[in-house]
Each structure stands twice: as C-alpha cells, then as structure tokens.
Amino acid sequence: MIIxxxxxxxxxxxDDPGNFKAFSVRIEGAxxxxxxxxxxxxxxxxxxxxxxxxxxxxxxxxxxxxxxxxWQDGLSNMIAAVQKFGWxxxxxxxxxxxxxxxx
Length: 103
Hints:
Distance between the termini: 19 Å
Mean pLDDT: 97
Order of helices and strands: EEEHEEHHEE
Shape: globular
C-alpha cells in the first residue's frame, strides 16, 4: 500500500491497498511546506524527511475500506509482522512508513 500525498489535488489517497508488504508514503509534486505538513498530518501522528508514523486508526477508518474485512485483517497482520522491527509505536498506535518523493 502506498499512501500518496498529492500536490496537484491537495489530497491523500491509498494506492494498492491489498499490498501490505509495500507500506510507504509518496509525496507527489512540489508543494508549500505548510500544505505538505497539513496533508501529511491528516494521516501521520509525526514525521520527518525520511519517515512518517501513520495512524493505525486513520487507516482502519479509511472511508472506502473501513467496512472490508480483508482490509482490517490485513492491517492487523501487517502490524503483527513489523512489530519485531520496531516499526510500531504502541503509545501513539502508529506504523512507521518510509517517505519517498516523486516530481
């Protein structure tokens, strides 16, 4: 799953939601740092230039996916699988994602 932060539409979308092994954030296009922070902040509890900690609850409540059992199960399985790497923040209930930048 790729969480896309899209400059042109000032939106956040999820691509390839069934691919739980490819969890990342992609910042697409140039945007003002304030706009980027606002968009990224709609899904992340914190971030820096390299990583974002994505809210588990935001993912579970994603409008087009929240009622899908495969989505809920996939998130649970992904969280369990990456916990051993330290990629889960138990306090903030968030998942670490690498940030990539696309022109």
